[in-house]
Amino acid sequence: MPLTDTRLRALKPKDKPYKVTDERGLYVEVTPTGGKLWRFRYRIGGTQKKLCIGSYPDISLKQARDEAYLTVDERMSAARSYVSRFMQRLMQADYDMGLPGLFQAPKSMSAYSTALALPQSSPGPSAIHVRKSSVAGRWK
Q1: What gap in Å lies between CA 54 and CA 19, rounded to an integer?
Q2: What distance in Å separates the CA atoms of residue 85 and residue 111, rounded to the nearest whole number?
Q3: Which of 17, 46, 53, 119 has a CA-to-CA distance to 113 between 20 and 30 Å?
């Protein structure tokens, strides 16, 4: 249920900080001293982030919503431009290596790593992890 101004004014402090959610990641954190702080949680690329907006009497509910959603829009557009630049670099690497089409797999990934200035990665333990029970039952 979305927050209202009346409900925000009625929030009382408790022994420990607690959260009261609004919608789409926006919430108010009520501290034991009685402070009401606006926070906003969002994800970009699987990484969770938290934005601190300000305190309740100074920033109204409408201002907090506008600030939160505007900030996420800005950060999402920055992420999109990063992906766009990466794709351009990848297409240029394809062109420089003389590959006929986009994302044609070269014989070795070292050509891509050199062209894109990406570090060579070796498969770690998570990439080669196999459950012993599934292998033991099938491969006797």
Answers
A1: 14
A2: 19
A3: 46
